[in-house]
Amino acid sequence: MGPGEAIAIPIVIGILFIGLPWLILHYVTQWKRSGGISREDEQLLDELHDTARRLDERLCTIERIMTLENPNWRAVCNDPTPPAIRQERTR
Predict the structure, then answer these.
(1) Which residues are listed as membrane-spanning (predicted)?
(2) In degrees rounded to 5, what are phi and psi of residue 74?
(3) pLDDT tens, position by position, for the chain (91 residues)?
């Protein structure tokens, strides 16, 4: 056994039995500590939920208004052919 091996063996053993478990336990502790969402993230999530709800209400209002003005608006919007082509075909 040479002098390089005599130094390398304790270093490898130290890394395997001290360094690696310390690294794993450190990140497990960090993971457990931040297990839930923070207050800031929770507030942001609540704000996003309220914004989505308001946008959904606005969309429903717009759909009601459009239905009152033109009850057939959904069929017109879903038709893939433009009006000019439709007029040419009917001539």
Answers:
(1) 6-29
(2) -70, -40
(3) 777 788 888 899 988 899 899 999 999 998 888 777 888 999 999 999 999 999 999 999 999 999 899 888 888 777 565 555 545 445 4
Find out whether 19 and 12 touch, Cβ atoms under 8 Å. Answer: no
- pTM greater than 0.70: no
Q: Which residue has tokens 């003005």?
A: 69
Q: At 2, phi and psi to the nearest 5?
A: -90, 175
**Total residue count of the chain as it appears in this document:** 91
Helix (H) or strand (E) holding 25: helix 20-33
